[in-house]
Amino acid sequence: MTSEHTLTPSRTYPVTDAARAALAVAKRGCDELLVEEEFLQKLARSEATGKPLRIKLGLDPTAPDIHIGHTVVLNKMRQLQDLGHTVIFLIGDFTSLIGDPSGRNSTRPPLTSEQIEANAKTYFEQAALVLDREKTEIRYNSEWSMKLGADGMIKLASRYTMARMLEREDFTKRFQGGVPISIHEFLYPLMQGYDSVALESDLELGGTDQKFNLLVGRELQKQYGQAPQCILTMPLLEGIDGVEKMSKSKGNYIGISEKPSDMFGKLMSISDDLMWRYYELLSFRSMDEIAELARSVESGRNPKEVKVLLAQEIVARFHSQADAERALEDFDNRARGGVPDDIPEVSLTGAPLAIGQVLKQAGLAPSTSEAMRNIEQGGVRVDGGSISDKGLKLEAGTYVVQVGKRKFARVILA
């Protein structure tokens, strides 16, 4: 192992203004940095020796798509990457076989190797929309985890106690509540921690829900004779509802592969207060610039104008500046009651067809009962006219059907 990563008394490096500036970049928007003075020394060492720090982020490919909530930590990786450090995008193809118990009140079903492989194929392609593809080290933790074998796994398990595992909040709650905890779940934080040993990590990033796992890595590094990694946790971004954390299962997410107009519209739907949270965690603008935007709003500027700037920045990042401009035009057109140019076309049969069935079959409502609720709330339009009659049937023809502000379909009914 390299000398920088051995657990031996080492020299103290002078802390320069550049090191303190790098620390400020690392801390922007973070929830916690452990241990700050240690990390400052790592930054000072890197500057003095010219050797970049090794910064690790592990993601399990549990789903094929990444939403902008995931990019909060990816943005931090990019900021540290731009400072010249080595960032390691670790795909947890082995740990996904176990299943991360973080925040769970029951055992997470492990994925099959086929599911993991399919999801992993898309992961870095999406992450590369944030990270510098050419400067990112991509690793899979099966590289070293598979080689451990039964003997190595037993030796690794001997390095951590059951009592320490039960300090973890979700394990404690399940244990006290009589909810089963499978033995293999204890292996997850151990294997994630062992990743840090294998990669000789200087800093590991993760969401606040990963703190326990990251601390295990720090402890294991000490036991393997390495200097312990520092830990930087990032907040979990609230979804567009402003209440729950962003999640596909809660329907409050913005996927980074969504159409520009849909992404723009969702960003414009967030509250004025939540906008500042999104600015801090998602925007690449400096904090001084963001503070100036906040002062302009306090002085009377319409918050919508500032929200447009954020929405355009995010859309341009994942698509293009031209897409961002078109998305703004599309949004303004919708706000004036216009119809977007790129609405989907759906062919249906069965005329005359009940409006509830039209909405459901056109994909504008998940069920007829939800379609009825949309009508009751005045959210359904056909060819620009508001619909209030839940018993309406559409005759054969072509209609522009709208639900809410963002859902449109050109329905060809026969």
Protein topology:
Blueprint lengths: L16 H11 L4 E3 L1 H14 L4 E6 L11 H12 L3 E6 L3 H4 L14 H15 L8 E5 L1 H16 L4 H4 L3 H8 L6 H17 L3 E5 L3 H13 L6 E5 L25 H9 L3 H11 L4 H12 L4 H16 L2 H15 L9 E4 L4 E2 H7 L6 H9 L3 E3 L2 E2 L6 E2 L2 E7 L3 E7 L1
Parallel strand pairs: 2-3, 2-5, 3-4, 5-6, 7-13
Antiparallel strand pairs: 1-6, 8-11, 9-10, 9-12, 12-13
Verbal overview:
The chain has 414 residues and is α/β, with parallel strands linked by helices. It has 3 domains: 3-234, HUPs (Rossmann fold); 260-335, Tyrosyl-Transfer RNA Synthetase, CATH 1.10.240.10; 345-413, Structural Genomics Hypothetical 15.5 Kd Protein In mrcA-pckA Intergenic Region, Chain A (Roll), CATH 3.10.290. Helices cover 47% and strands 14% of the residues. The chain has helices at residues 17-27, 36-49, 71-82, 95-98, 113-127, 142-157, 162-165, 169-176, 183-199, 211-223, 260-268, 272-282, 287-298, 303-318, 321-335, 355-361, 368-376, and strands at 32-34, 54-59, 86-91, 136-140, 203-207, 230-234, 345-348, 353-354, 380-382, 385-386, 393-394, 397-403, 407-413. It has a 6-stranded mixed sheet with strand order 1-6-5-2-3-4, sandwiched between helices. Helix 11 packs antiparallel against helix 14 and helix 12 (272-282) packs parallel to helix 14 (303-318).
Number of domains: 3
* N→C terminal distance: 71 Å
User: Given the structure, what is the number of helices?
Assistant: 17
| Share of β-strand residues | 5-15%
> What string gives the helices and strands in order?
HEHEHEHHEHHHHEHEHHHHHEEHHEEEEE
Shape: globular
Low-pLDDT ranges: none
- Summarize model confidence as the mean pLDDT: 87
CATH topology of the largest domain: Rossmann fold
Side by side, the strands of the main sheet go 1-6-5-2-3-4
Largest sheet: 6 strands, mixed
In CATH terms, the superfamily of the largest domain is: HUPs
**Percent range for helical residues?**
40-55%
Structural class label: alpha/beta
User: In angstroms, what is the radius of gyration?
Assistant: 25 Å
CATH class of the largest domain: Alpha Beta
- Beta-strand segment tally: 13
CATH architectural type of the largest domain: 3-Layer(aba) Sandwich
